[in-house]
Amino acid sequence: MRKLSKRGMAAAAAAAVVSISTFATPALAAATDETPFQIGDGVNACPGNRICFWNDANFHQGDGKGGDFASFETDKDLPDMGKLVEVDPFHDKGMQDATSSVLNKTGTAWCLYADNNFSGEHVQIDPGQQIPDLGQVQPNINDLLSSAQMGKC
User: Fold this and answer.
1) Which residue would you say has higher pLDDT here, 59 or 35?
2) CATH assignment of 6-150?
3) Sign of CA dihedral 88, 29, 103, 152
């Protein structure tokens, strides 16, 4: 096994940091050890202690076209759902203006907002609550969800 010099170790560490930051924002990297995207269809696809979002009604992830993920799960606040992952310095990938169904498997309420940074029209989803079609609950927020914050509205 070849021993790395201090310069070599520093270069390897820098490359690892660049590699990680290229694919995930710090908030996302801390959210879960497993990949939280494309979780699958149905309420059983949502892991425990997470809030899950799907881009189609009735907990279907659809095709995820248009630069969005088809489904996503987290346990962290999301101030900008359009910037879940940085693809490159000029393009992000996320769930901006795409969510149609939500399931809250956490032990606390969440507030879902139409605008970034926890603003605009909103709807609360309580612990254990399922919203199979946001359009039926809050028409002005269906396919317009842009941020989500743990806690009551």
Assistant:
1) 59
2) 2.60.20.10
3) negative
Task: Give the pLDDT confidence of 91-115 residue by residue, as tens digits.
Answer: 888 888 989 999 999 999 999 999 9
Locate 112 and state its tokens. 């879902």
Q: Please compute, for residue 14, the number of CA atoms within 13 A of its CA located in the half-sphere on the CB side.
A: 6
Residue 148, beta-bridge partner list: 78, 112
Domain positions in the chain:
6-150
Tokens matching residue 146 = 């842009």
Of 85, 151, 82, the C-alpha closest to 115 is 82
C-alpha 42/C-alpha 57 separation (Å) is 10
Which residue shows structure tokens 């603003």? 119
